[in-house]
Protein 1
Amino acid sequence: MAACVRCCLRARLRYLPGLRKGFAHSANDKLDNEMLDEQDRMAEDSQLLDASFHGGYKLHYKPSSYHSSVGKPALSSRQSVKATPASSVWQRSNRYREKSSRHLSSSKKTLLNCAFNKGYELKNTQPPHHTTPVLPDVKVDTRAFIKCRPEYSTITLDLTQRPPPINWEHVVHILQRVSDVEGSMKPSDVSRFIVDLSHVHTDNVSLVKSEQGFLTLLRYMVENLQLFSLTELFDVLRSFVWLEMPHGHTVLQLFEDELIRRADEMRFDQLLLAADLWRCIGRKVPQFLKHLYGLVHLDLGQVEVPELVQLLYIIGEGRYCPKVLVQPIEQLLMRQLHHLQPEEVGTLCLALFKSQTSLSEAASIRLFDKAHSHVEDMSDFAIVNVLKYLRFAYFLHRAWMEAMTYEVPRRAGRMGVSGLMHVALTCSSLHYRNDRILAAVAEEIPSLVPHCRSKDSCKLLWSFGSLGLLPVQSPNLYPSLTGALRIRKAEFQRYPEHLLTGLLGLAFVSLFPEDLIALALSPDFVNIALKSTKLDLRKDLFSLDGVVALELPHWTGPRLSREFRQEVAEKLWNDVLPEISQKPEVKCAETTLQELLGGEEFVCKRMILPHMRSIDFEVHLDPSGKPIPVSTEYQTATISPQNYSSKSASNHSWERINSVGVTDELIALLANSRNAPIPTIPPSEVTTLSIVEPDESEKLFNTGLNPTATITEMLTKPNIQKSSLQDSVVKLAIQVPSRNNYCYNSKQLLGLHAMKMRQLKLAGYRVVELCYHEWSPLLRKSMSKKMEYLHFKVFNTLDS
């Protein structure tokens, strides 16, 4: 008897190599005792099985073996049983004859279902930083391309063509038939039963998956998967889509292993179909996709438009394209380009964007030309996909963008917040400012705020701020998006980069929501941001802190530590200097300025505002216009940003080496009375620089001096001469912007660079901009031409 049992066990184990890998640990003895309802003879057989297989023939299930919970410690066995009705289960002896081996109550059926269904635990586990999900405002068919050609039916699954539903009585009949023939089932029977059950109405899907008959079918597949034909495997996988099997279900791991084992036997169209079914289930199968990608070279000559589009769709959804495939795919795309339909073009662009795959410039231009020829026939989704790839390729296709000036206003009302966000973000990334496009997007956004994710709100703020759309031009836009940030505040714990992006976008247009800034600079948030492994957020934090220091002198909220600022400023200096110094326009400006002013000591190349991550030339002039050597302390200050920080951690006042303090000497100069007694000014009226609005740069107090009552009285006395206001050093900040600092085909600076000019003025500098459109053509001119231009730009500031 024992020998017979051992032989039976060996035969069974031949079919379970994947199963033993999937179920890793021993089962709970309590569940074992509950599931045994054996006669004495069966109990004896079970003891023999235990002796031959280290304690029993067991199906083990442990969710933690497959999934690691982010931010939560692993649950103990006892806690797991509480979280789900059962965390493990085992089977013994007779495979299917329930009546002769064991009788399962309805509660035990539930236990068994949970053992086979890993998705149960995932469904009931809240993710860290859980927030209320955002409901989409527009339903988009992301697989609309498969309706372009009938050939897609053999390599894809049309999710809109669900099988006609059957009533519950029919389902009960099917389950009864499973029970009647379970001892003599064949793979074809199992496949047919699963397919029939997948026709159940969506409201009853969960009930079917909890029925013992369905679990019996799963058991048969687990132990006999190698006996199924490819057609039967595909039928079952297709049925699993309609039955909404969780992507983490244990049985699906066995299916994946089996399809990988058979991949070399499959045709290219079968591999595409299998990959699509996995995509519909939502399961990532990188090992299987390797086999698919490996066959592309073999079938290169046989790949037609449907296979090419479906292959790229799978590549895009997998977010990865092997480098060896890029060239063959480009060749196939160029060969089939004229056959593509509008929706297929959009799918290809989205796939290239998602997989971060760059085509050659010539191929990209041809693809965008093709898109432009079909722009009026494209769906909104396809148009957004083309914009995404334009953004990734960093290529401004002029004809396409001009078409958007008509298509976006026409479609904006139905594009949804996500689509509008990508429109604005593409315009921002390509520096393409078009008021028709921006106005159409800005008009729709306020009504869509309830559907805005934090990602949408923050990227919209960055886009509008970068392109310089002022609050007065769209009064409802910025308040509504700022309110959206407050509503979705919890999401920033998981995506800290979004908050920093949104706040900097607001700062570009002089908007400073202090509650959100306080959150972004709080120690807890800073710690979360610094732990980000995907992005280095130190620069963004440093930029926001510098903005607060200059634009909000009354600020009493949190600030970054001096050590942090020191570290980031030094890194920025080391990163920026080599890159900037090699630019021809910068090198030429430096040598020409030195020649014009009389030597190196009159020109200091440094980061005047370290948080702006850029270098300028600093020049000092006396009131008569004579150059003054720039002190070495300025160069030291560039590398030692402790001068660019608050006085202490507890005192958040701004201490700048370039600030204009109200000293006795300055008061004497302002009053034109060096020999007169110096009036006493109350300490409360001794201030540093205050805010100067961007439109007040031509007013008297454009130095940033806060005109308190005492100083105002002194300045308005009749004996004050205008020349006395110029008895101090004039500090120039000479900028050499590149073409990428401007909006496309315009002299309008982008938001970051416009903010920098504003803040340089707040810091007491007169800004001299060597406009790219003026300075760049002069690089090929003679030194005298360059000197003439710089002389005008530098010394003309004294008259302004």
Protein 2
Amino acid sequence: MKKTLNVTLLFALITTLLWNPGIATADELTGHAHENGLRYLISKNALVPDTNGSYNANNNVTRGEFASYLSKVLNLTESNEIQFNDVPDTYAYALDIKFAATAGIITGYSDGSFKPTAAISRQHMAVMLERAIDYLKIPKGTSSITFKDNDSIVAEYRPAVAVGAHLGIINGSNGYFMPEKNATIGQAATFIQRLMLLAGDQEANVSTYIIKEVSNGALVGNQSFTNFADAEKALTKNNQVIVQNDKIIKMSSGFVVTNKYVALASETIKDQIPVAGNTEMEYLGSDATQVKVRLAGQVGYLKQTDVTLFPFALKKDRSYYSNENGEIKHVIYDHTTNKYSASYIYGKAPAFMKPNEKYYSWDGIYFTNDSGSSKGNAYNYYQFLPARATTQYTAQEIDDYITNKLAEMESSGASIYKDATTKSKLIGLGTTLKDMEAKHQINAMLILALAQHESAYGMSDHAQKLNNLFGLYVYDTNPLNKNFESVTANINELIEKFLQPNYITPGGAPGKNFANGAVIGSKAMGFNVKYASDPYWGAKIAGHYYRAEKAMGFKDAGNPYTIGLTTTTGLNVRPEPTTGNSPLFTYARSGMPVIVTNSDANGWYEVISDKLHTGPAYISKEYIQIIETVK
């Protein structure tokens, strides 16, 4: 499982654009992969044919040509008479080069040259594009994107490459950027068109908007408009959608699926949330460039190019929950292959779930049927049990469970579990886990469940070779193969560098907004909000805990903790049941899970403090909602 932890997901903004053949008669550019960009440059008088009438779209673009394209598209007209020693006034692009240099978009070499006829490298192009981004005052955001050949990029050019890739203007191939490779005129045209789309140039968007109707499982109709606003005004029926380049970009209702790993800018918690590809989300609305979605209660926006919209009437299928022999099973649908791809059981099924029926949920808490009618809500005990809980299992019982589980995995015949009973890094961890629980007040079984999930029961390469049970520092964009001297050191690092300061302690470490509830949770609350992009990561870990309980006799669920949720923002947690003292800490957001240890404290609930504290903590009963958990 790849993480995000301290790394914001970096992603491409715009895919290759398609040309509407109705806009121009067929010629040498018709059907070209970069036709849209080429025609855009032509419309700006930046690209002109040669004496034979050809645009030479597949030729390498020169430094002079690329500077001229930018100058023309940006409508640069000011010159401070910057002169390069190899750009005479008679050179075809001399004036455009002066304009671009005056605007700060290009610079020359230390010998005073510009080398206008040299084919431009991809890294030099990225630098010019970044300067154009600055000139246009386009927000660059924060990016630390890297490619597999990052070391081949000139160090001072790496930020420009990262910005271009982050904004979707330039892309790599199979994880490589190929900095020294030259770009074609066609590719340069697409890069510039993407730049100008970001700048809001409507002329850069030459695609038409078509209204179609959903009828008998298909899209019919061909009413076209030159701009999104007019198409949107023409929508009169709930079964109508707006299509651009054969892609639905607006509908009345349905769901949204991420095409790849993205970052959702959540307006709910004012933070970036990593989201894996093939994640289903609620559709709330859209315009020509972005889609408003809700993921487990987190409302935010994603770019149209990052998602696919599915009207309910056109869906082939979707992920669902079911009651399988009294247990809740989550079956995941892959929208790229149109097949069910995985499933897992993670607890007892709630009472309202009937066998042989499908249930749907955006957050794993509130469930509906296929028509959207509410069927009930359920909080899985293991998924929403705060980390400060203490398991009732002894070190020996945990070791016995690990031994039996490894034998089970080994007998499965899967190659990864070959010799698991003798090689797994989980062997003999019971005492270590219980010692950690006593020292750090973090549930030993929770740590074990996390280790099982992240390390394939201690048999993954990172576990075997690096003693890394938790995928620490294995970021999506730049995995760091850190070698831990022992599994114990790895567990200590997880607790002391990640969970304790960032994910459990309210407020988290300075500058880090990872504390969204001290539970493994979901994208609604808990570690899962930021720790992993998989929206079901918390539920899957809960499944490991549940299956361990099932094997060991349900000692924890048999004597459960009482769990409540906070109901207000800015809630102070006190060291005594009175407001006459300074708070231990404050919950910035509502919906934070707490363990209630005493409900009879004169209008206060006694709770276990999420911040390490030797005694109990207290919250006014007015601000706690006790929840029923399924266990």
